[in-house]
Amino acid sequence: MHEFLAQLANGVELGAIYALIALGYTLVYGILELINFAHGDVYTFGSFTALVVLVALRAAHVLHGVGLILGIVAALLVAILACALLNAGIERLAYRRLRKAPRLAPLITAIGVSFMLENLIELWQGSAPVPFPNVIPNPELRFGALQVGVQQIVVVALAIVTMIALHYFVQRSRLGKAMRAVAQDRDAASLVGINVDRTIAITFLIAGALAGVAGFVGGVSFGSAWFLNGFGAGLRAFTAAVLGGIGNIAGAMLGGFLIGLLESFSTWFIGGQWSNVAVFSVLILVLVFRPSGLLGESLPEKV
Amino acid sequence: MRSPRIAALAALLLLAAPLTACSSGPTPASTTIGIGVDLPLSGADASVGTSTLNGIKLAVNRANAKGVPGGFTFAVQALDDTQQGVHNPQQGASNVRTLIADDSVLAIIGPYNSNVAAAEIPITNEAGIVQISPSAVSDGLTLGKDAAMLRRANPSVNTFFRVCTTDSRQGSAAARFALDLKLKRVYIVDDNETYGLDLANVFAHDFAKLGGTVLGRDHIAPDTQDFKALLLKIKGYHPDFIFFGGTTSTGGGLLRRQMFDVGMGKLPFMGGDGIPDIAEVAKKRADGTYYTVAAPNADLLPAAKKFVASYKAKFGGDVGPYSANAYAATEVAISAIEQAIIANGKKMPTRAEVLAKIPRSAKNEVHTPIGPISFDKYGDVRKPVISLYVIRNGRSSFIEQLNLGE
């Protein structure tokens, strides 16, 4: 029982990170029908920006007491901002001109951007994994049979708050409405006066911001940042997005948590070397038997 | 539209042709002898690779300063086998081909990693060039059917030597060390690579044979980031320690680091010579990590004091885990080349002549900072030594050593 709950908590933590990344895939797919393969690398970029800020603050000896909390918030905000701008920049430079091109063109471009980002990050931070500062104190807390670390709670809480904020933004705000409209029918949306270019740019900003949050919590959770992290994490998150129904926001969240749990429990039951097999078998099974994903049909409205 | 372009292209080709012809013309007899080096010099293995290269440079500088027979000078030609941040067998094979294509290269030092060595040995075997690795410990590189497969091109010739000992000796030494430390119940994890899996297999076998309990084993997938699921599973077995077969870059660093995230930080962690650089990833959390190195402790050997002093004087930092081995491997190669030069009337010897001068018996062993070195018929050292270290306060400290072999 102890172990089941511990694995459950670990799966949820992992899933929270995948869900945040998966949301970035799904938002962009919803609005452009483009699988933004560079998204995983935006996540890596987020990890490194947060890491650089934290290392600088630690060197300045401000990371204690209130300074610690402010420092963590600062690192998170810088990562969010940097990733949002990076993602929007990618859209402006690499995808906007290809919006009317055949669908294969932007897809290949996305792969190209992904390689470019990976190598730029390698130039910037080197090719060795860089340890992420242990900023969040990690005493274990007990709730009956459940034992969790403070760090785990912070990671999951941050992810859930972000997802709730995203949900309200998309459902309630004017911009969110515009995003849904553009996703449904780009031409009709522009006919009723929605600025399509701007709406798409904002979608990329938000997707990037989510990757920034994911980069920060991923760094905290795994304890290191590496220039190729985004590739593996990105593929798993993409699987999560497909599992939930790509283009569907609730689906991406659900898919993320399911993939995280699957990775955790497959390691427990079958062994660590099989966790990738378990995760990517899901990708194949979903694509073959239910290409629209778990929530793809029941909620036709996409963003 | 088309034809002018083609004409321009043809003109370019014509211009380029004499240039290439020039560069492939006969070169004047050179007085430089290349010592080829293949190591991981960037990426996750950069620190161990670079400190290994430093050992090679030191030996080459010393030989040049002393004067080489025939007025030759040695030059290090180092290539990096890292790709995408990790040591890569294909890159290693391609590096070795590059080195072999250069006629002035008479011996190759390297590689660092066993899986890279497995890709390189068939090539150096076919070319008949001496290759000495400071650190590739996998058994199959020199022993048994695996080694025979690697030497298919020239089954009767052995060109691969190593100054370190083997995985199996290291694994069984680690099993003895662990029991000496009163650690009786182990959970074993490995990275499924040539080196890591071999080490874990031997450790598991010997640890059980000597009376320890192996609670379970697991293999990790490449590029895994989350080890907490695996660690939580291990926690359920209540082991005395975790043994890891693999390197810092293939998961050892993160595994140790994440042990603290699941409340297993106090548990000892043990591995082979793949994890001496673990503190670079695990930082303070590396404390309590035990590791074996298939070499004597250079600080303790009288012959090594001079080496350690000159290393520190030249490169500043501490001696790396395989710096002394690399120095010794280079000294062995240089000694063979120098003997071959003398035997050849102070002229440039062939690669086969160098190979013939590699020390094969106690009579002509080469005295190095890691002890006298000669090789058996498989290419392994005759007097292997294995040392145990522990990391405390972020620094490695030596505990004890085992002398194996003759």
Secondary structure blueprint with pairings:
The complex is a heterodimer of chains A (303) and B (406).
Chain A (H helix, E strand, L loop, with lengths): L1 H31 L6 H21 L6 H30 L8 H22 L4 E2 L8 E4 L2 E4 H23 L1 H11 L1 H6 L4 H27 L1 E2 L3 H16 L4 H21 L5 H15 L14
Helix pairs in contact in A: 1-5, 1-8, 1-9, 1-10, 2-3, 2-4, 2-8, 2-9, 3-8, 5-6, 5-8, 6-8, 9-10, 9-11, 10-11
Chain B lengths: L1 H22 L8 E8 L6 H21 L6 E8 L1 E2 L2 E2 L1 H13 L3 E5 L4 H14 L2 E4 L10 H7 L9 E3 L4 H14 L4 E6 L3 H16 L3 E7 L8 H8 L5 E5 L2 H12 L9 E3 L7 H4 L6 E5 L8 H14 L7 H21 L7 H6 L9 E3 L2 E3 L11 E8 L2 E9 L3
Parallel strand pairs in B: 1-2, 1-5, 5-6, 6-7, 8-9, 8-10, 10-11, 11-12
Antiparallel strand pairs in B: 3-4, 12-15, 13-14, 15-16
Helix pairs in contact in B: 2-12, 3-4, 6-7
Describe the structure.
The complex is a heterodimer of chains A (303) and B (406). Chain A is mainly alpha-helical. Helices cover 74% and strands 4% of the residues of chain A. Chain A has helices at 2-32, 39-59, 66-95, 104-125, 150-172, 174-184, 186-191, 196-222, 229-244, 249-269, 275-289, and strands at 130-131, 140-143, 146-149, 224-225. In chain A, a hairpin with a 2-residue loop joins β2 and β3. The radius of gyration of chain A is 19 Å and the shape is globular. Chain B is α/β, with parallel strands linked by helices and 406 residues long. Chain B has 2 domains: 32-166 and 299-375, Response regulator (Rossmann fold); 167-293 and 388-403, Response regulator (Rossmann fold). Chain B is built from 13 helices and 16 strands. Chain B has helices at residues 2-23, 46-66, 89-101, 114-127, 144-150, 167-180, 194-209, 228-235, 248-259, 279-282, 302-315, 323-343, 351-356; strands spanning 32-39, 73-80, 82-83, 86-87, 105-109, 130-133, 160-162, 185-190, 213-219, 241-245, 269-271, 289-293, 366-368, 371-373, 385-392, 395-403. In chain B, the strands form 4 sheets. In chain B, strands 9-8-10-11-12-15-16 form a 7-stranded mixed β-sheet, covered by helices on one side. A 5-stranded parallel β-sheet of chain B has the order 2-1-5-6-7, with helices on both faces. In chain B, α7 links the parallel β8 (185-190) and β9. The interface between A and B is large, with 44 and 39 residues.
